Amino acid sequence: MVRFLHFIKLDEHFTLFYNVELSEVKPAAVSDLSTATREFNRFSTADPPSFCNLPLLRQIMRPAKRRLFLKSATAALSLPALETFAKTSKKERNHANCTRFVAIGSNLGYHGPAFFPKDTGSDYVTSELLQHIDKHRSGYTVFSGFDHRAANGHKNWDNFLCGTRIGSFSLDQQIAKQVGQRTDLPSMQLCAGEIPAQKMCFNERGTPLPMLNRPSVVYEKLFGRAKNPEHNEYLLKSGLSVIDSLTQEARMVQTAVSAADRRKLEEYFTSLRELEKRMGKQLLYLADDQVKVDYELPPYDPVTPTLMLECEQIMLDLIHLALQTDTTRVASLFIAGLGQVFTIDGRTLRAGYHALSHHGNDPDLIRDLVRVETEHMRCFDRFLKKMKETTDAAGRPLLETTVILIGTGMGDASRHSNRNLPTIVAGGGLKHGKHIASDPKQDDALLLGDVYLSILGQFGIDADEFSGASRGIANW
Question: SS3 sequence, the chain?
Fold first, then answer.
C-alpha cells in the first residue's frame, strides 16, 4: 500500500490536504513518484489533482490556483429543474420575494446620450441603445443620475456592486448569503473577454472573487459530474475526518498562545466550520441525479479579445441554464473592454474598444462605440427573452423570480467619470416600465445604494443602509 498527500482546491482561498491510499496499484508499478502518479491518474477524475509523497500536513488551508473541488470534464444531456424534484420548499416557491439574482457589469460603461431617455416616467421615448430591448419595456426600469458618490477613475470601477468603499460586501454576495446555500454553487463569477485588473464581487471578508472566462470551464463547473461518485465520496469523507482531527488539535493549543493568536485561531475555526458545511453539501449533491442540459458549446473557447462579444452571448446562455437547472441562483458577468478592434456585420471599426470609449466627442468614434454597445444590448435582449420564456419549478417565468441588474462602475469612460452610472433593473416582481431619474445636484438625491436596498428587499433582506443610502426606491 502506497500513500500520497492529496491536494484538492475547495474554493479561491482554501486547499484540502490529506492522504490517499493507492490500494489498486500493483507494487511493481509504484517504484517512483512519477510512475505512481501516472498510475493513480487512471483511477482519478479527468482533471487529476497533484500528489506529493510527504507526511500528512497538520493544516488544511493554503492558497492555491487549482480549480474548484469535485469537477469533471464529463457532461451529458439533461432536464431543467422539475417541481417534483425541486430543492425549495412549497412556502419558498409560493412567496412573492425573489430567489435569483444576476449582475452584468460593463467595464467601459455606456455612452450616456445614447443610453438615457430624455423623458422620465412611463411614457418616455426610448433611446438609441434601449430601442433594442424596448419590446421588454414593461419588464425593466431605467435609472439615470444614480451613483455611489465614489472617486473617479478606472481603478474605482470596482465600486459598482459594493458602494463607496472598494472591498465592501458586494450586493451579489449579500444575496448569495441569503439564497445561495440552497444550490450546488452559492454563486458564480464570469467574465467575457480577457480577465482585467478590475474586480466586481467581494465576499464578506472583503476578498475579491475570481472570475472564469472560458465557457468550456464554466460548463464543466456547472454541469460536470465525476466519473466515479464512490471515489469522490471517499475523498469528501476523508476530508471531513481530517477537519475534525485538525479542529481538536487546534483547540488543544488555543490556551497556550497569545490573545492575538487566539483571535487568529477563532478565524481559523470559523473557516473550518464553513468548509465543513460546504463539504457536507457536496456529499448531499453526490446523491442527486446528474444535472443535464441540451446545449452545445462551440468547438473552441472564444477567449481572445476580438471574440469578446461571442463569449458574452455564450456566458449569458450558460447563466440562463444555471438558473433554469437551479445549479446556482446568483451569477455575475463582467464585460471586459480592452484594446480589441471589433469587426461587426462585416465592417471593422475605426479603433479598439477602449480607444473608442475615449472618443473626445468625435462623432465617428462615438458611432463605432455605440455600435459595440448595441451588441451588448442585443445580447441582453436575447437573455431577457430566454428568461421570460423559461419557467421555474413552480411554473413561473424565471424573469419573475430573478432580479437582473445591468450597469457599470464607469459613468463616462471618455472623462473617467464615475458619476451618473447607466443602470437597468429587470424582473424580480418589481413595478417596471419607467425611467426614474435622480438629480445629483440635490442634497437629498437618491443614490445607487437606494436601488440596491430595494433589490435586497425583494430577497427578504432587511438592510438599513447600503453605502450611505438608506431610503430605497419608493413605490417600485
Answer: CCEEEEEEECCCCCEEEEEEECCCCCHHHCCCHHHHHHHHHCCCCCCCCCEECCCCCCCCCCCCCCCCCCCCCCCCCCCCCCHHHCCCCHHHHHCCCCCEEEEEEECCCCCHHHHCCCCCECCCCCCCCHHHCHHHHHHEEEEECCCCCCCCCHHHHHHCCCCCCCCCCCHHHHHHHHHHHHCCECCEEEEECCCCCCCCCECCCCCECCCECCHHHHHHHHHCCCCCHHHHHHHHHHHHHHHHHHHHHHHHHHHHCCHHHHHHHHHHHHHHHHHHHHHHHHHHHHCCCCCCCCCCCCCCCCCCHHHHHHHHHHHHHHHHHHHHCCCECEEEEEECCCCCCCEECCEECCCCHHHHHCCCCCHHHHHHHHHHHHHHHHHHHHHHHHHHHCECCCCCEHHHHEEEEEECCCCECCCCECCCCCEEEEECCCCCCCEEECCCCCCCCCCHHHHHHHHHHHCCCCCCCECCECCCCCCC
CA neighbor of 333 nearest in space, from 106, 54, 19, 65: 106
Cβ neighbours for 442, distance < 8 A, ≥ 6 positions apart: none
Cα angle 464, 465, 466 (rounded to 5 degrees) comes to 145
d(CA 167, CA 164): 9
Other beta carbons within 10 Å of 92: 14
Ramachandran bin of 475, using left for φ above 0, alpha for ψ from -120 to 50, beta for the remaining angles: left
Cβ atoms < 10 Å from Cβ of 210 = 13
Confirm if 393 and 338 have CB atoms less than 8 A apart: no
Average pLDDT, the chain: 79
Quote the crossing angle between the two packed helices 229-253 and 259-286, to the nearest 10°.
Answer: 160
d(CA 236, CA 74): 20
C-alpha cell at 211: 472570475
- Can you read off the three cell numbers belonging to residue 231? 471515489
Amino acid found at 19: N
pLDDT digits over 215-255, tens only?
999 998 887 754 456 655 665 566 566 666 666 666 677 77
Closest CA to 235 of 43, 75, 466: 43
Q: Which pLDDT score is estimated for 46?
A: 37
| 295-305 confidence digits (pLDDT tens) | 888 888 998 88
Phi, psi of 157 (to 5 degrees): -55, -30
Residue 14 has pLDDT above 90, yes or no: no
pLDDT for residue 92 is more than 50: no
Distance CA(261)–CA(10), nearest Å, equals 25
